[in-house]
Amino acid sequence: MKVKTFAQSKKYTGNFLMDRTVIVVDVLRATSCIIWACRNGANRIIPVSDAGEGAAIASRLGDCIMAGERGGIKLPGFDLGNSPLEFSPEVVKGHNIVINTTNGTVALKAAEGAANVLAGAMINHSAVARKAAELGKDVIILCAGTEGEFSADDICAAGAIATSLCQYAEITSQCDLTLVARSLYKDWKEGRVDLSKSYHYSRLIDLGFAEDVDFCFQEDITDIVPCYRDGFIQPC
What pLDDT is attached to residue 52? Predict the structure, then answer.
């Protein structure tokens, strides 16, 4: 199995992803929210490109929760923002969720041409790695990044996933960024790296989302793996 990691989703779409399993990572916070919503009983999650598309889909489907943010702040008129703590069983169980975020849903939409699209984060890194290994295809870990730029928090989560992949599959090739991601994850785990100095991490802290950040950097608190297929996300 070959493993590649991309630092942001902007350039990697279309035919390049065909016949591969893509693990989309937006650890702060979209894929963490999606994983937690699935874990807490959401029916279907529909990522959309913009708020207008989301409103149209919600109108057509009926019983929908609208979730989304811009710049970390909940979109006006939406039910939920982009905090995984909002996606509790009491709120999401049995409901469809339409979600639009600055970075994460962009990455999910970019991955639509892949054979398999999985949502990964720190909170499920072993489970998503195990599922990718079971699928048996080469893996791309597609980091959402932050507003089109490299984001250290996503790279660290990608390193956690890549490290877990090595436990479940024979890795025959890793790109340089995968090796860097694994090294960053190891240094973070052993306390040699402080991600609070990174841009997106520190911005969320400044916006008052420290509890979200702490939640999203817990490791392997669920074995739920969301799969994105035919426009909908549901547990595999």
Answer: 80
